[in-house]
Amino acid sequence: MGRSLLSQFLNLSNACPRFTSCSISTKSQRAFPVIHRNYLPVAGGVSSHKCYCSVSAPEPTVSEGSSSSIKKRIVSGVQPTGSIHLGNYLGAIKNWVSLQDKYETLFFIVDLHAITLPYDVQQLSKATRDTAALYLACGVDTSKASVFVQSHVRAHVELMWLLSSATPIGWLNRMIQFKEKSRKAGDDNVGVALLTYPVLMASDILLYQSDLVPVGEDQKQHLELTRELAERVNHLYGGRKWKKLGGRGGSIFKVPEPLIPPAGARVMSLTDGLSKMSKSAPSDQSRINLLDSKDAIANKIKRCKTDSFPGLEFDNADRPECNNLLSVYQIITNKTKEEVALECRDMNWGTFKPILTDALIDHLHPIQKRYEEIMSDTGYLDQVLAEGASKAADIADVTLSNVYQAMGFLKR
Which UniProt keywords apply (predicted)? Predict the structure, then answer.
């Protein structure tokens, strides 16, 4: 995907898959092709028991509010291309902090998606580490959420290939983002990955039997493809067909539902209130990066596009920039929409811009300070990513084994 939010795309299911009708062994063998890993153990220990048959992950049957309820699972991520900006933060990462208290959460850096368009090979590894550090600096708590790098769990790529065999090419040709980006880049500069990355996105989601997917408005089409693909694979290979092959039968994949944040889900460009804030925009003036200096933030807000209408207001279609800036102010100050509307209705831009600037600087300063602390301790960050990948792979390998079995592959 050419944009940040993986945001935008990954989800979740129940806490841990339940084993049914299977023999348990402490050996490291598996019944179906899986990934061999050399990751650090998950904090608290990871069971070494391996299942030689199918695994079920039933939906929770108790309410979310119950203390004994099984948490639903959410998986999401952001690309390590360019700098993490305010749109990534308010549209995805900030929401993760609240989601990790309510759900089982896995957040990863989608480095495989970052290579769908030409990229800086020398910077990919550094950008991946920077993005992971920013996740933690923004408040992602590793005692509540797993943080890992997408390419460190090879099941993502394996499942993508299996799903590709069941994906009609017509489904991919209708993807709007592919049409837009291929038109801009030109056919000679567009790789097959730009066309097929929605299948990788589906793999990212379905691999973890996700219940919910945090998505931005521009990613809803990709989630629909994921849902359709899950239903298609369930129909082609699940149910009695799978049971005849020794599996548990029923659905192979859980069909995820979208989770769209009520506010801040779509932060717009500072230079065009009708375009989403984006890493790929040619002008850095169009975005506030999380690591921007105080002077850079002040300069960008001072020069951002506004209008000549009197007062400030939300939801006026003729004033997209005004709505965007007020929405940003509302989110970073934790005020209600009504409070901001009342506070700012009689202001002019000369009064509001310094207030917004100060609010942004105050909000981002603790994040920038924590980021520097994390980056100074590379051993800590490496451990976090290794433990997160190990936990994620334990879940992913179960799904992958089931898919191999349901599609008729020979056991290893």
Answer: Aminoacyl-tRNA synthetase, ATP-binding, Ligase, Nucleotide-binding, Protein biosynthesis
Identify the active-site residue in 50, 94, 254, 279.
Answer: 279
Ramachandran angles phi, psi of 149, nearest 5°:
-100, 130
Specify whether 276 is catalytic: yes
Active site residue 181: yes
**Structural domains for the chain:** 73-264+378-407 (3.40.50.620), 284-376 (1.10.240.10)
- For the chain, the distance separating the N- and C-terminal CA atoms, rounded to the nearest angstrom, is 34
d(CA 230, CA 232): 5
Determine whether 72 is an active site residue: no
Alpha-carbon gap, residue 196 to 61, rounded angstroms: 36
- pTM to 2 decimal places: 0.78
Instruction: Write down the catalytic residue from 50, 94, 276, 353.
Output: 276
The predicted-structure confidence for 135-172, as pLDDT tens digits, reads as follows 999 999 999 999 999 999 999 999 999 999 999 999 99
